[in-house]
Amino acid sequence: TTARTTQTKITLDNLIAARYHTVRVKAINRRGIETAYTVLGSTTTIENTPPQQPLGLDGVWADRFTLKWAAVAYDADGAVNKDLMAYLIYRSTSVDGPYSLVATLSPSTTSWTDSDSFRYTIYFYKVRAIDTNQNLGEFSSSLVSTLDFKSQIDAGDGGLSIVLPSRLLTKNGSGANEAITVVIERKPEEEGARVLTSYKLTAITLSGKTLTGFQFAQPIEMRFKIPVLGASSSTFSALATVLPSEIANTAVFHNNGAEWIRLDGRLNETEKNLTSWDRRTGPYALRQSLGTTEFTILSIEPRKFITPEGQYPYNQFTVRFSNPRDSQLNDARIFNLEGAAMAEFTRGADGSSYYWNGRDYEGVIVPSGVYLYQIKIEGKVFNGTVVVAR
User: Which residue from 89, 145, 257, 359 could staple onto 103, CB 3.0 to 4.6 Å apart?
Assistant: First the structure.
């Protein structure tokens, strides 16, 4: 690398990290006459890639709360980490912080017991790694020390937060045989007009593998911030906004690879956010959409047919609905074309869907053919057809 300056110091860019370098200097006047080189000495550039964020946060209660995490084996760029120095433990009484450093642990340690914790006390924890060159990795997702441990992962702009049981991010609970995290990516190029915000959720394993089409074992909570005209935020902004009187006319949609599906949501007018639940990663969007005042079927998946022994979501018939009155369901069943009842719908874990797995009351997969579904609620009957292919 060669550089010129008229000063008595210079910063050399684009040097290769962790390499031995020798620096020589010479002077040149305006007539082009040069001096001999003077060797200033040698130096080694510092490696500046931070460690990967710790994944798989989990915990266990005994007399005190013990925090656990998966060992960091890679740098943020995916290279094998060779210089991990310590894990830093941070604690707060609020998920939004501020977080204070409470412990510094050796790189061989993957658990820590909080001596200040007592049964039923609630703290929020984050972990980050630091290497011998003082490169600090990103914070882990937060873990709350309630008896049903939950983690929260936030978008960098503050527009979306996901909350899920911490075990779904661990090696034993993710279904991927590795600890995982979820990356939330804002997609501003898809926003504007009726699309208020757009995000993509991607599951990534501890070893850096992207899990395409990943689905959690149960629905996770997704909390979207609604961009309201006149509201101020230091980090969150959107091209399109809604009037304060129209925040109820918003809805969360998911793209299943074929179409955008509307999901049921719970509005918090005070916090100006909309919460929805789903198992899937992939594209999600907050859109302007008329709210519902009575039981309404929002979407049906898949639209053409189901294959009971196939892959989700094509292995079951799902009816997603909005039930703003929390009305009592009277009946939800599947019939054959002769009118004989074959099965009952099952309520989805998200509370806003019914599904049928293509099996009869005895648990046997029904023959291929056309079937009728019928849902009775609020004095109304909703019905249609579903095709089973084997």
Answer: 89
